[in-house]
Protein 1
Amino acid sequence: MPREARLPITPALSLPWTELEFRATRSGGPGGQHVNTSSTRVELWWNPGRSSSLSEEQRHRIRAKLAHRLSEDGWLRVVASATRSQHRNRELAIERFQSLMARALELPKARKATKPTAGSRARRLEQKRRRGLLKRTRRLAPEED
């Protein structure tokens, strides 16, 4: 039984090509301006809610990080119309999709709490001492009659 062709996203995740939908439409830029207009603009559509390859955690992370890019129905759209070639635009759309998904699935690096260095503590205390001295010198001396 042949394995289903898959699109690699991260080393641990790949999506079946059958989940991706491609549409070719007329481009407003290169390739779409000549008399016999050709459909060189490529739209890649994918629905993370319907994907069988994602875990619930991955699905949640994608929805959170790409919320502004998802349609009301939950579809993600990636468009490429930079070149006159429909084939090259398709490749560009796939590359953008892969990098977009890889960035969305990245786990944020955990921040390690650090203590201030001895030098930074000394500088802070010195600044406080100078500021206090400046304020003390601004005080009005009591008037003597």
Note: Residues 20 and 46 are 5 Å apart (CA to CA).
Protein 2
Amino acid sequence: MLDEELDAMIAALEERFEIACDEMRSQLHQDVNALIASHRSAGKSVPPQLLALEHQMVEAEVDDAFDNMPV
């Protein structure tokens, strides 16, 4: 996969993540994890923007977990 294609794919995932519902966000997170795993299994370094997106997804999931907690 070319760097330009990967950058475009990451940008598209970021955009989809921003507007997605919780169920779709979970699926997108799985897709990002699979992409990271495929890079690692191929011996390639994982692009920093992909790791940043994964980190953003984890933070959003943690924030969502606290949305319904009583105060």
Note: The chain has one domain: 3-67.
